[in-house]
Specification:
alpha/beta; Metallo-beta-lactamase, Chain A; six-stranded mixed β-sheet; seven-stranded mixed β-sheet; 30% helix; 13 strands; globular; 389 residues
Length: 389
Amino acid sequence: MATEEKEGLSRRDFVKGLAAGTAVGVIGTMGVYSYSPWRKRHFPKVVRKNIDIGECKSVKIKCITETSWFINKVLMNDIKGAGGLLVNQYEYNWPPFTEKNGKLGKGSYEKGIANIKQYLPDKLEKAWEFQMENAVHPENAGGYAALIDVELLTGEHKRILLDTGWSYDWTEKSFKREGIDKMLANKEIDFLFISHEHFDHFWGLPVTLKYDPEIPMHIPASFYPEGKQYIKDSGYRGKVIEHKPGLFKLFPGCAGYCFDVPIICRVYGEESLYFNVKGAGIVQVTGCCHQGIIRFADTAYKTLKFERLYGVYGGLHISPFEDWDPKYDDLVIALKKWGFQKIGCNHCTGIITAKKFIEAGYPVVQGTARFRSKDKAYLGNGDVIEFKA
């Protein structure tokens, strides 16, 4: 979307709007007005910052694993049984931070890590054996991770590992399936980018460190003490780069943005990525998008210099537990405003959401439903999407 159209509200237009509303009732009037251009006259004028992040040639993303957990009902029952969505995630007694014969909602990071610290990061099988014997539903743990391969205008490639899964067992098998273990061992991945502190995006960290314990790591500065200590306890020997809220440039054509947002399970802050693909436009890449897909796009519009928004990839956090609410339809409708040419969604987007996008005629790149991904409506495990002119 290059520019906003200049739209006014004449008395004649307003009368037409009222007439239309009368035909469908008062609620209808509100709906017509909410989605009409008339409402924009009440908005303050947006002053764009037009920050230039440079350009790159292409962005290719491989979904290593989007299956963060395997059964929604099991996960939600655990959360409910532990006290709800506001409970500290380190208290659940989920793997890998479980006590011996751990009880739901009665755990802690300190007691849990004490049982496995001696095994990290090289003896993960031993650490996971303990989880299988003592943790709450270790078989339901999966993880989220993606490999981003960026070709620069010079022909050089930059590779980013976005997140690092949850289950040691599942994450390592997924890494080996896609050759990530060898790439890490050969120092072919430039840095690890942790979107946020959630269990399914971060707790599989020792798997990455097993193959490259010195890989540069980017995290939100809002990580809690447990998360920062886990990085140390996992055997990390590299440099942690912490990001405060706002934009930060990474390399030509790529910038991160840390969103100041509270998240369930006592997690705070999520950072996502923007790429400016020459001849195509801005590509947005996210782990969960807890900031919201509309805020994600709006931030790009207000902050970056670009010709148009081109594509988006990741978990878009709309109905992640397949519990569709009519209010989510507003998000589906609102997404049209940004004119994305290519949408690659998975994970916490929800299968229902992906199908809603497809029904709405959005350019959704569908997958193959392999390796325990549940549906072809979105990009699943082992699937690839590419953004280029």
